[in-house]
Amino acid sequence: MATETKTVLDQETKDIIKATVPVLKEHGNAITTRFYQRLFETHPELKNIFNQTNQRKGDQPKALANTVYAAALHIDQLEEILPVVKQVAEKHRSLNIKAEHYPIVGENLLLAMKEVLGDAATDEIIQAWERAYGVIADVFISVEEEMYEEIGNRPGGWVDFRDFEVVKKEKESDVITSFYLRPADGGALASYQPGQYITVKAQMEGEPYNQLRQYSLSWAPGNEMYRISVKREDPINGYPAGKVSTYLHEEVEEGSILPISAPAGDFVLDQADSRPLILISGGVGLTPMMSMLETVIARQHQRDVTFIHAARNEHVHAMKERVEDITEMYTNVTAYTVYDQPSDESACDKVGHIEREWLKEILPTNNAAFYFCGPKGFMRACYQHLKSLGVAAGDIHYEVFGPSEDITA
């Protein structure tokens, strides 16, 4: 992957940037929060791209603050942040963020830095960051250009949004519904890797801006359609109902058209690994796990799989019957269900939560590939359990929106 930049930073600039690392650690979230406020004040059309729910929750500013901090910390060797760059670039490509957006972001980020830091943000510091931002932006633009080129040249691939028809809508549980999507133009379907997602552009009546949301593809590649399985986000803890999930559940029907971007994401199953596979999910986090499970039974017939799913109860547990069918057909697949508040305790293998000692009892080995997905608190617990059971860091795979410390701390 290309990492060349158009400008080389001088040592003085690097020294200034590195000297600001402690300041960014302390004030980074305030800077990025103010940045997004400025951005949407000066360029409200960008609300068509950025998830406003993540803005309200503070996830988006925190994620950007983490990226800026990492870039400053590794300004001597920007290749060190390539994993972060690649993950963010996958998101950018799925949202169709282009090179022309970067100067707008840079201008507002520097102004936000100046506002938050006040006199501490001297002209020398701001000028150094202006030079550094140009170099960092070039890294992102270069990586994203390669991604756009690759997906545009892939058989069935496309850039920007493409209309898909909902050919089937299927209720999976009280809160999760699957949507089967086929290209409205009748053309080919781009391949994807299990674990990847698509971005849906919801154009809702009465809403001044488009709403973009990313949903994991929930079955194996190679089918004639895409499938996403969407949880209806009801009001909770002071947050309103999810606009897009409610729209999909209540207004989108078979025959409806949804614009989507091509599959993206770097949280993907390593199919070259033949060791035992452990898939752990909480709630709607089972969607990428289902894609991985379906892929293994189709392509890695001898690979041992342990599939663990946690849900509140049996009424919100999606695709349970499909997993049961798989375990009956394939002796190499073992499945466990954990319910926090079951209506019938006989409907699950464990009541409560996934706990370290229980994992120790049921896991065949810690020399395996572990993938997990779910709410942040769930993933934080999974990560800590696996680390305490001696699982190697390189065998622990997850995807989180925001700083990895949200899970690993």
UniProtKB/TrEMBL annotation:
UniProt-annotated binding residues for heme b: H92
Co-factor remark: Binds 1 heme b (iron(II)-protoporphyrin IX) group per subunit. Binds 1 FAD per subunit.
Q: Where is this site: Influences the redox potential of the prosthetic heme and FAD groups?
A: K91, E399
Binding residues for NADP(+), per the UniProt record? G283, V284, G285, L286, T287, P288
Q: Which residues bind FAD?
A: Y197, R213, Q214, Y215, S216, V400, F401, G402, P403
The Swiss-Prot or TrEMBL record annotates one GO molecular function as: nitric oxide dioxygenase NAD(P)H activity
Q: Which UniProt keywords apply?
A: Detoxification, FAD, Flavoprotein, Heme, Iron, Metal-binding, NAD, NADP, Oxidoreductase, Oxygen transport, Transport
The UniProt function text for this chain reads: Is involved in NO detoxification in an aerobic process, termed nitric oxide dioxygenase (NOD) reaction that utilizes O(2) and NAD(P)H to convert NO to nitrate, which protects the bacterium from various noxious nitrogen compounds. Therefore, plays a central role in the inducible response to nitrosative stress.
Q: Which family does it belong to?
A: In the C-terminal section; belongs to the flavoprotein pyridine nucleotide cytochrome reductase family.
Q: PANTHER family per the record?
A: FLAVOHEMOPROTEIN
| Swiss-Prot/TrEMBL domain comment | Consists of two distinct domains; an N-terminal heme-containing oxygen-binding domain and a C-terminal reductase domain with binding sites for FAD and NAD(P)H.
Q: What is this protein called?
A: Flavohemoprotein
Q: What is the lineage of its organism?
A: Bacteria, Bacillati, Bacillota, Bacilli, Bacillales
Per the record, the gene is hmpA
